[in-house]
């Protein structure tokens, strides 16, 4: 199945959870991170339960300091 992560295409054999996608991407630091599936922000408490479907678009948003 195909999933888009920040507009890059990734293939998975099964429907991955959001946490599984983060692990696959090598993202271990979750502080300041937000996730949206198909432009809908997902609460952090649901990341380990929600499974992506084929052709879902996952956006990873990292908060940064600056001004």
From TrEMBL:
Source organism of this protein record: Arcicella lustrica
Protein encoded by which gene: thiS
Gene3D superfamilies xref list: 3.10.20.30
One Pfam family cited in the UniProt record for this chain: ThiS
Protein name: Sulfur carrier protein ThiS
Highest taxon in the source lineage: Bacteria
InterPro entries in the cross-refs: Beta-grasp_dom_sf (IPR012675), Mopterin_synth/thiamin_S_b (IPR016155), Thi_S (IPR010035), ThiS/MoaD-like (IPR003749)
């Amino acid at each position: 199945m195909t999933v888009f992560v920040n507009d890059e295409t990734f293939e998975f054999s099964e429907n991955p959870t959001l946490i599984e996608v983060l692990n696959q991407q090598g993202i271990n630091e979750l502080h300041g991170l937000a996730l949206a599936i198909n432009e809908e922000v997902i609460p952090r408490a649901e990341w380990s339960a929600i499974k992506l479907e084929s052709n879902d678009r996952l956006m990873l948003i990292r908060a940064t300091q600056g001004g």
